[in-house]
Protein: Stress-response A/B barrel domain-containing protein
Amino acid sequence: MGGFKHLVVVKFKEDVEVEVILKGMEKLVSEVDAVKCFEWGQDIESPEMLRQGFTHAFLMTFEKKEDYTAFTTHPTHIEFSATFVAAIDKFVVLDFPSVVAKSPA
Structure:
């Protein structure tokens, strides 16, 4: 699956209930048809010096950049973003067209 990707890597604040944020994220992507795929994970292997405090990664796939652009202005995304930003200590965002080098079997 190629398309356009939205990758967010975060470190949550210490007092945040991460499960609540994850449920909110899953609700968000279920309500926005432009999101074709949503994946997330929590780091369990990387040495601290490599992950620099980041603990979770979120990856959304869109068919094209225009779908991502529409997602960023969707009312549900705007509403959830305020909650999400308040919960994170630091983050990195990458938005990019995907190049598939090896498709899943």
